[in-house]
């Protein structure tokens, strides 16, 4: 299975970098992982609604240019659907069975994802109604994808 994670904004915090490196290493046993980090657009505090849409749209276009044609796309969105870890594992497993050898997860920037990106997505996944910073979201996502592969391989993992 090939997994891509496209995210907007640079990873700055050292403690998150270390966690991400750790799960990247662990995941290398189960899948080919490609992490694409895109530059975010400048976003001052006092942007108008119209300018915010322009920022999201520009970031969205960059995201869309990185999605492979045949990839199954899972957008991370607060108002998406909740899955248990077992359900995410099952989703990944079923996609493999149905011949989807490539899954792309997308994490938006500080303003979220554009409508165009959400339209291209096959699934909108929420990790709760809470808002997480994009860098932390990447670490949480990697841990859950790792957990999913452990579940699918009937391998032990702390509860
Ligand atoms: C700082 S958040 C953006 C918040 C923005 N106001 C919004 O409504 O999307 C950055 C990105 O992290 C991801 N994210 C943050 N919290 C999430 C959650 N609870 N579930 C799923 N994705 C989340 C989303 O991809 C989001 O675009």
TrEMBL record:
Catalytic activity, reaction form: pseudouridine(1915) in 23S rRNA + S-adenosyl-L-methionine = N(3)-methylpseudouridine(1915) in 23S rRNA + S-adenosyl-L-homocysteine + H(+)
InterPro entries: Alpha/beta_knot_MTases, RlmH-like, tRNA_m1G_MTases_N
Main location: cytoplasm
First-tier enzyme category under EC: transferase
Residues given in the record as S-adenosyl-L-methionine binding sites: 76, 108, 127-132
Keywords from the named record: Cytoplasm, Methyltransferase, rRNA processing, S-adenosyl-L-methionine, Transferase
EC number, as in UniProt: 2.1.1.177
Gene3D superfamilies listed in its UniProt record: 3.40.1280.10
Keyword hit for Translocase: no
Functional description taken from the UniProt entry: Specifically methylates the pseudouridine at position 1915 (m3Psi1915) in 23S rRNA.
Oligomer and partners: Homodimer.
Family, similarity comment: Belongs to the RNA methyltransferase RlmH family.
Name of the protein described by the UniProt record: Ribosomal RNA large subunit methyltransferase H
Source organism of the structure: Romboutsia weinsteinii
Originating gene: rlmH
């Amino acid at each position: 299975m090939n997994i891509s994670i496209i995210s907007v904004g640079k990873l700055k915090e050292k403690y998150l970098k270390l966690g991400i490196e750790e799960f990247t290493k662990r995941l290398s046993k189960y899948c080919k992982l490609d992490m694409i980090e895109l530059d975010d657009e400048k976003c001052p505090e006092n942007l108008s609604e119209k300018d915010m849409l322009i920022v999201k749209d520009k970031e969205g276009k960059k995201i869309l240019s990185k999605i492979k044609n045949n990839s199954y796309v899972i957008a991370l969105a607060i108002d998406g659907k909740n899955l248990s870890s077992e359900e995410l594992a099952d989703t990944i497993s079923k996609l493999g069975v149905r011949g989807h050898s490539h899954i792309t997860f997308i994490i938006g920037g500080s303003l979220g994802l554009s409508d165009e990106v959400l339209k291209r997505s096959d699934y909108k996944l929420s990790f709760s109604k809470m808002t997480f910073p994009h860098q932390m979201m990447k670490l949480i996502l990697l841990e859950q994808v790792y957990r999913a592969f452990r579940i699918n391989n009937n391998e032990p993992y702390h509860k």
